[in-house]
């Protein structure tokens, strides 16, 4: 009986110990879970604090850059072209008469001459003698005509007395008329000789500027000698500008232009007076002729640049410092989302003293970096300082 009672008590003691161990394990697990949750919360808070501090530090250390919001302003729609200078009305001057030996050349290239002014003198010693002979033949013919007229008048006085027949009178009238005709022939031959001699000298067909001289004293010239002088009528010049097919549609007669000869800073005001009605099928370009006044800096055959103003257009206008170039074109840097640098490809329009107009690539509402663009990279964080846009 005592043995049974001891066994029962041992059973209850073991059960109680197991319950205590279970409660202890559960308590330890709960404590561990609480500690893990607390550690995770602490690490999360530390991470967020560090990120916030890092962002604040990055913003504080970001460089300040000057930006401009260009908007859209009215700018001149200009077209650039290049070409050569030429005389607007070039006059080639050669031998008009029979020619001969050149005795004197009276002008030099670059000299202004009047209409009909002698440029070169041709020897006329032989032609002068021929003209003198023809002049003498006029006097001989006139003497014969005078004699025939006198004989006719004497015959008319005798015809009433019956001494001269009507047939004789007819012959005398014919003789008189033939003599008068010979006078007119001699006069015509003499005038022809005078006219030929007058065409021996080489003269200016109109007032203008002598461009070239291709003759020297002692040279034998004739109808086959070609051009001896080239002149610009009135000294008027023009620029023959080659222009793309699309640009030709924007240009009309009367369009204003500024011409700059190569090697000079001279800007000569001109005006389009003719637009080519055809386009070269190989180059897809057409000719625009720009009339310009005479200047000593203009030399026919020389090269020049032209800027044509083909109306106005609305476009963003930037300072030149804001526009950058690379192998594939132009671009600008803009401050985009989160104040980070972005790169934007653009197409440049008109370049003037006011700035650079942007034909495409910008709407005008962007924050465009004006200065220090060379020291910035895409993705850099900056502090934009807005500058007032040029108007």
Q: What is the strand arrangement across the widest sheet? A: 2-11-14-13-12-15
Radius of gyration of CA atoms, rounded to a whole number: 52 Å
Taken as a percent bin, the fraction of beta residues is 25-35%
How would you sum up the major sheet?
Answer: 6 strands, antiparallel, barrel
Are there runs of 5+ residues with pLDDT below 50, and where? 49-54
Principal-axes shape call: rod-shaped
Chain-wise SSE layout:
Blueprint: H1 2-61, E1 64-68, E2 73-87, E3 90-93, E4 100-105, E5 112-113, E6 118-122, H2 125-159, H3 166-198, E7 202-203, E8 208-213, E9 220-221, E10 229-233, E11 237-244, H4 245-248, E12 256-261, E13 268-275, E14 285-292, E15 303-315, E16 317-318, E17 324-326, E18 329-335, E19 341-352, E20 355-360, E21 368-369, E22 383-387
Helix pairs in contact: 2-3
């Amino acid at each position: 009986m005592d043995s049974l009672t001891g066994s029962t008590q041992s059973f209850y003691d073991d059960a109680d110990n197991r319950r205590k161990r279970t409660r202890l394990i559960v308590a330890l697990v709960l404590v561990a879970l609480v500690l893990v949750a607390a550690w995770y919360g602490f690490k999360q808070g530390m991470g967020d604090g560090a990120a916030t501090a890092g962002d604040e530090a990055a913003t504080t250390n970001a460089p300040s850059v000057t930006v401009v919001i260009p908007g859209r302003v009215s700018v001149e729609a200009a077209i650039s072209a290049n070409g050569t200078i030429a005389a607007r009305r070039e006059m080639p001057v050669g031998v008009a008469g029979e020619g001969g030996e050149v005795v004197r050349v009276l002008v030099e290239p670059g000299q202004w001459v009047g209409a009909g002014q002698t440029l070169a003198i041709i020897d006329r010693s032989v032609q002068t003698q021929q003209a003198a002979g023809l002049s003498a033949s006029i006097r001989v013919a006139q003497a014969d005509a005078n004699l025939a007229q006198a004989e006719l008048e004497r015959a008319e006085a005798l015809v009433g007395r019956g001494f001269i027949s009507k047939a004789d009178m007819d012959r005398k009238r014919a003789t008189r008329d033939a003599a008068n005709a010979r006078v007119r022939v001699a006069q015509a031959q003499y005038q022809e000789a005078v006219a030929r001699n007058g065409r021996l000298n080489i003269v200016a067909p109109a007032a203008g500027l002598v461009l070239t001289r291709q003759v020297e004293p002692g040279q034998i010239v004739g109808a086959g000698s070609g051009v001896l002088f080239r002149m610009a009528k009135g000294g008027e010049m023009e620029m023959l500008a080659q222009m793309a097919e699309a640009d030709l549609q924007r240009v009309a007669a009367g369009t204003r232009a500024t011409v700059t000869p190569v090697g000079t800073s001279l800007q000569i005001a001109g005006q389009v007076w003719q637009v080519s009605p055809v386009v070269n099928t190989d180059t897809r370009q057409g000719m625009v002729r720009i009339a310009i006044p005479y200047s000593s800096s203009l030399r026919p055959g020389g090269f020049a640049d032209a800027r044509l103003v083909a109306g106005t257009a609305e476009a963003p206008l930037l300072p030149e410092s804001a526009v950058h170039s690379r192998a594939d074109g132009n671009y600008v840097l803009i401050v985009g989302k989160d104040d980070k640098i972005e790169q934007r490809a653009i197409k440049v329009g008109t370049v003037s003293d006011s700035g650079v107009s942007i034909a495409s690539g910008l709407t005008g509402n962007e924050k465009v970096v004006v200065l220090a663009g060379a020291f910035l990279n895409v993705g850099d964080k900056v502090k934009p300082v807005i500058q007032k846009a040029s108007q």
